[in-house]
Every structure is written in C-alpha cells, then in structure tokens.
From TrEMBL:
GO terms for biological process: cell division; regulation of cell shape. It comes from Ananas comosus var. bracteatus (red pineapple). This is UDP-N-acetylmuramoyl-L-alanyl-D-glutamate--2, 6-diaminopimelate ligase. GO terms for cellular component: cytoplasm. Residues 115-320 form the Mur ligase central domain. GO terms for molecular function: acid-amino acid ligase activity; ATP binding.
C-alpha cells in the first residue's frame, strides 16, 4: 500500500504533503523504538512525551514517511530526513483512522462487544467470552488481565483498553485466526482518548457508574460523558444492541444515547421491569446458584463466583447472550 492509497482509504485530508506520496507503507508505528524499514511514523502526543521529538530517530531506522501535527515546530533536519512528510491538524485523532485503514477495518469482520462502567468490566468480559464459546463462537478478548488472541496466544495488558494502533493490529490478528467475536473492556480513558473511534461495535454494555478517575476526567459529568460515547455508536437497529443495568441510577442516560430504536436488553436485581433478572438466588462461601428469567426462558447457572456484585456480572453476560441471539 502506498502512502497516497492509505491516506485515501482513511479519508484523511492533510493540510499539506511534502515528498513522494507513492512511497510504499509496510507498517504503522507511533513509537520510534518499534520502527522497521517501510513504516509510517505517526508523531502522537503522549502523557509523558511527544513523538515529534523522535522524527530523526524514526527516519534513521527506515521510516518511509512521517505524519506530524500542524502546530508543532519541527527541526529542519527532521523535515529532510524522510521520503515523505504529511502535515495534519491532529495526529492523535487521525491515528485510529490510519490504523483501521491499514489493517482493513478488522472489527467489521467480527462481532464486537464493548463493556463499559466503573466496576465489573473485567469479570463481565471473561463471562461474555465464555458465553460466546458456549454458543460455539471462537472469540478474542481485550481487557485488564490481558489480550487474548486465541487460547494459545495471550499477551500481557499494558492498558485496559489498548491504544488505537494496538487494537486494530490485535483485531486483525484475531480475524486472521478466524475468530467470530471479540469482547473488550471500553474504559473511560480509552473512549475519551479516541482509542475506540474506529471500532465497529455491535453490542454496548453498561455495568454501573460510581465516582472514579476524577484525576483524569476532573468532574463526574465528564467521566459519565466519556463512558456514554460507547452507546453513541449504537445507531443501527438491525445490527446494534444495548445492554444496560436497569438498577443503576444512570441507566436512563445510557439507554437514551444512540438510536432509540436499537433493541435493548435490561438486567437487574431490584427491578421487575427488566428482561433478565433472578427468580431464585443462593449465595454461599462456595459459589452462587441462580435461576434467571430471560426472554428466552429460565436459565439455571451454578458459578464459583460469589457476592452480589458478581450476580450483576453474571446477569450482564446472560443479557449479552440474549442480545446476540443465544438460547
């Protein structure tokens, strides 16, 4: 793929381009330490450093082209060390589009479940993966405890929600491994920073919302608004599904986002006005026994998980199964 072709596929409109737009692009990186010959180096702003400081290093390692942000003053030496220089308004916002286009938008070939909320994301993600496997679907997973491409290929997690480039690369690998679905934690940081911008989610799950991460979001309103970005993606009634914990005081806020016509599955323990709820519950030191009412009938579950909070996680996972057409 040439630089020109990649920019076209990503619907990117650079402010200006200098050099050879037909230069081949064989990879994308935003970390100069990982550059290989032929890569496109996207100079992103990080929490600790600025990729624009490493243009010369990237070019010396063989980067074919460099993408920089308009407002950044780049050393003259750095401007002339690469075969092509692309100037854009914001490198951080264009990275997800470049990455998704380079890897062929792998999320469009997978059934993608995104799980957001303050608590329960990690456990629910693992439970939903088990639901898919019980339905006979091969699934991958991205979350706090690791990135699972398949049962034989698991990576340590750097972030709950990986950066946009890593997400697209891992999803492409899962698609190549013939995965049917992927379950991932959609953290407030990941949603706010645009890491999930080019992911074609099929199901959005809301677990609960409590006060958290105000060092980053500053206010509870901004924290909630970052979480609800996942539900803003639920716009196609034929494809998308919403799954919401109806007992949470913020439930209506999440339900209202996106398209109101998108099918909704609600779960809870305190309300009888939900599709998925326990009819019988027994919690002991040894596990949890549940009889769950669902639109598809009553489900009996025996789990080693204990605690009321894990009952909610189980209900969320069952709700996803209902949402995607499981029995």
């Amino acid at each position: 793929m040439t630089l020109s072709e990649l920019l076209s596929k990503a619907n990117a409109t650079p402010i200006s381009i200098h050099g050879d737009t037909q230069v081949p692009i064989t990879g994308i990186q935003h970390n100069s330490k990982e550059i290989s010959p032929g890569d496109l180096f996207v100079c992103c702003f990080g929490s600790k450093t600025d990729g624009h400081l490493y243009i010369t290093e990237a070019c010396e390692k063989g980067a074919s082209a460099v993408v920089v942000t308009e407002v950044v003053s780049v050393e003259e030496e750095a401007l002339h060390c690469c075969r092509a220089l692309v100037i854009v308004e914001d490198t951080n916002s264009i990275l997800p589009r470049l990455a998704a286009s380079f890897f062929g938008h792998p999320s469009k070939r997978l059934s993608v479940v995104g799980i957001t909320g303050t608590n329960g994301k990690t456990t629910t993600t693992h439970l939903v993966k088990s639901v898919f496997e019980a339905m006979g679907s091969k699934s991958g997973m991205l979350g706090t405890l690791g990135y699972c491409i398949d049962e034989d290929n698991k990576l340590e997690a750097v972030n709950t929600t990986p950066d946009a480039l890593t997400i697209q690369r891992l999803m492409a690998e899962m698609a190549r491994n013939r995965a049917d679905a992927i379950v991932m934690e959609a953290s407030s940081h990941g949603l706010e920073l645009g890491r999930c911008d080019e992911i074609d989610f099929d199901v959005a799950v809301f677990t609960n919302l409590t006060r958290d991460h105000l060092d980053f979001h500053v206010t509870e309103e901004r924290y909630r608004e970052s979480k609800v970005k996942l539900f803003d993606k639920m716009i196609d009634p034929d494809k998308h599904r919403k799954v919401v914990n109806i007992d949470d005081p913020n439930a209506s806020y999440f339900i209202a986002r996106g398209n109101a016509d998108v099918p909704l599955v609600t779960f809870g323990m305190d309300s009888e006005n939900c599709e998925v709820r326990p009819l019988g519950l027994e919690i002991s030191l040894f596990g949890t026994k549940l009889l769950i009412s669902t639109p598809k009938g009553v489900v009996e579950i025996n789990s080693a998980l204990v605690g009321r909070y894990n009952v909610y996680n189980i209900l969320a996972a069952v709700s996803v199964g209902i949402a995607v057409g499981g029995n």
